[in-house]
Amino acid sequence: RLVYVLNGPNLNLLGKRQPHIYGHETLADVERDCRALAGELGLTLRFHQSNREYEIIDWIHEAREEAGGIVINPAAFTHTSVAVLDALNTFEGPVIECHISNVHKREAFRHHSYVSLRADGVIAGFGTQGYQLALRRVARLIDDKAA
Ligand code: DQA
């Protein structure tokens, strides 16, 4: 059970970037916690971050061949990228969209998500803990699909 955890632009600066919004944990901390949970859940993880839209798309294409599910924090691409939505629409397994902040409490332009048109579930405003919840959900959906 392979799961891709994909992170969009500026998330490499997590922990340093607007900590009042995104907290003090770094993306390396998030990856470490995700790997620990994946071990418990019997998942194998590919954990990636990029500031480049095409790399996110290429990883989704890779996931098509290899992965059972995707957890994605598309960051700003959430609100702009038909291309990321189109890529996710080619993926057959479960997709969970994850946002650290509560996007609905923020600027109006963050209230719309292209990715939500495809996501099986959305998590927002749980801080970095949202990744753990998203992983649990994706594991459940992969199992349900196999049953
Ligand atoms: C984010 C929310 C987005 O609106 C923003 O562009 C991000 C991070 C979040 O995790 O809360 O970069 O996806």
From TrEMBL:
Keywords: Amino-acid biosynthesis, Aromatic amino acid biosynthesis, Lyase. CDD domains: DHQase_II. InterPro entries: DHquinase_II, DHquinase_II_CS, DHquinase_II_sf. The record marks 17 as: Transition state stabilizer. One of its GO terms (molecular function) is 3-dehydroquinate dehydratase activity. It holds the Pfam family DHquinase_II. Pathway: Metabolic intermediate biosynthesis; chorismate biosynthesis; chorismate from D-erythrose 4-phosphate and phosphoenolpyruvate: step 3/7. It comes from the Bacteria. It catalyses: 3-dehydroquinate = 3-dehydroshikimate + H2O. The active site is at 22 (proton acceptor), 99 (proton donor). PROSITE patterns: DEHYDROQUINASE_II. Its EC number is 4.2.1.10. One of its GO terms (biological process) is quinate catabolic process. Signal peptide: none annotated. Substrate binds at residues 73, 79, 86, 100-101, 110. Catalyzes a trans-dehydration via an enolate intermediate. Homododecamer. This is 3-dehydroquinate dehydratase.
